[in-house]
UniProtKB/TrEMBL annotation:
InterPro entries: N_methyl_site, Pilin-like. Keywords: Membrane, Transmembrane, Transmembrane helix. The chain crosses the membrane at residues 12-36. It comes from Pseudoalteromonas gelatinilytica. The keyword Hydrolase does not apply. Pfam families: N_methyl (PF07963). This is Prepilin-type N-terminal cleavage/methylation domain-containing protein.
């Protein structure tokens, strides 16, 4: 009778318990690896999106100034100069000490290694290289007078 009651007891053995713990550990490691990889991808994308937004704001600022004063645009010593109608000069330049691009003395963009403005036949091309080595290029058409 006692032997029947021992056979009818339901439970798990130590081997079964160890097998379950091992499987759960493997699944947990797999899930943690996926989460860490997803987090790294998210951070890289966030940095790229931030850089894209900052460069877009810089290009918009340059474009606005060029559109307002198309006659006063000049490039010298890797600086973009725009002379306003009242004689003030707006200067976009690369500050190698701060690794930034400045509009006059105001920093517009940080984490930059290169800023090259090029003026050629009514086109202003701006080349920017960020800290990750990615090169960004934008071309702005200078519209003078009634030209569209």
């Amino acid at each position: 009778m006692e032997e029947d009651s021992m056979r009818n007891q339901r439970g798990i053995t130590l081997v079964e318990l160890l097998a379950v713990i091992t499987l759960l550990s493997l699944v947990s490691l797999l899930i943690i690896g996926i989460i860490i990889q997803a987090q790294g991808t998210y951070k890289r994308n966030q940095v790229t999106n931030f850089t894209t937004t900052e460069i877009s704001l810089l290009v918009n600022s340059v474009t606005r100034d060029i559109r307002q004063f198309p006659e006063g645009v000049s490039v010298s010593n890797e600086m973009l100069n725009i002379q306003t109608s009242d004689g003030e000069i707006i200067t976009y330049k690369f500050d190698s000490v701060e690794s930034s691009i400045k509009r006059n003395d105001n920093t517009l963009l940080r984490s930059v290694t290169e800023f090259v403005p090029i003026l050629n036949d009514g086109l202003v091309t701006i080349e920017i290289k960020d800290n990750s080595g990615k090169k960004w290029t934008s071309t702005i058409v200078i519209r003078k007078g009634g030209d569209l």
